[in-house]
Amino acid sequence: MATKVALVAPRVESLAKSGLEAIPTEYVRPESERLNLGDAFEEEKKAEEGPQIPVVDLKGFESEEEALRRACVEEVQRVASEWGVMHIVNHGIPLELIEKVRRVGKEFFDLPIEEKEKYANDQSTGKIAGYGSKLANNASGQLEWEDYFFHLIFPQEKADMSVWPKYPADYVEVMKEFAKQLRGVVSKMLAMLSLGLGLDEAKLEEELGGMEDLLLQMKINYYPKCPQPDLALGVEAHTDVSSLSFILHNMVPGLQVYKDNKWITAKCVPDSFIVHIGDTLEILSNGTYKSILHRGLVNKEKVRISWAVFCEPPKEKIVLKPLPETLTDKTPAKFPPRTFAQHLQYKLFKKTQEDFVTPK
């Protein structure tokens, strides 16, 4: 039977609303990527019996009892080393604020496409902030089933407010407050991860640029309904270049992580953030903390929206290399020094599924 080929639309949202039954060939993933690829809701059900991304309660770190603080640090260290990803609860950000973040992001994406286009980015000129869709600049040449909005949210003085949405009216106010509160959680996570390496709790924060230079970049991902979720990906398999990534979503499943030679579909955990260890922390910890391969599924039933915040060091100021405290005669440096800009350019972690297969 001949494969149906649809015309490529400029935005995935346009495609999804056009009533097409078959996705354009540009969005069809190669056979090699289709292991456990399917409708996100179905994959979430299948995953109920298997291993789950751990849930880590951060409440203990605020305790005055040293034993509770230490137990919390040890759990964060264990999960960051074994998984490289976790759900965090009792993170300290008010749920009312989180709901506002979800609301203003959804209201922006509910605007007509022609309104959103006023904020369009231009990747050809290096203007990555704004409204966009993935260009086919990856190895497979395939596109991803998502549109997005990208902007720097912290430090406030480095943010280009001209690209921030003017609608809804409280978008700027809500995102500024969210950025400020999330920055506190970033410091808390870096403190625990520092202590987990046997370092002073301020060490990783300092190595990454501190309050002045560590950047929080937000990418709101909009994944429309997809008629063939067994053939498409919202985001292709990758590791994050950041130090940490924080993910909030609208309680629609989609995240898969690759562990022990298989894809594991994340459950939706209420009132939590998903936190990924990124390449930058894998380098600084000399591989103790793992930057896990992950990807995003789509589904036929519901739009998925996620709010990803990437915590990135300055591009040129800091040289990334394993910290001296992580090195011994038996564990020499696994990564050569590089700036964050060099890491972005060369992306030494060209990680694919095959790179993660454990020898039998």
Automatic annotation (TrEMBL):
PROSITE patterns: FE2OG_OXY. Keywords: Dioxygenase, Flavonoid biosynthesis, Iron, Metal-binding, Oxidoreductase, Vitamin C. The keyword Iron applies. Its cofactor is L-ascorbate. GO terms for molecular function: dioxygenase activity; L-ascorbic acid binding; metal ion binding. It holds the Pfam family DIOX_N. GO terms for biological process: flavonoid biosynthetic process; pigment biosynthetic process. It comes from the Eukaryota. The keyword 4Fe-4S does not apply. InterPro entries: DIOX_N (IPR026992), IPNS-like_FE2OG_OXY (IPR044861), IPNS-like_sf (IPR027443), Oxoglu/Fe-dep_dioxygenase_dom (IPR005123), Plant_2OG-oxidoreductases (IPR050295). Residues 214-313 form the Fe2OG dioxygenase domain. PANTHER family: OXOGLUTARATE/IRON-DEPENDENT DIOXYGENASE. Belongs to the iron/ascorbate-dependent oxidoreductase family. This is Leucoanthocyanidin dioxygenase. It comes from Cocos nucifera.
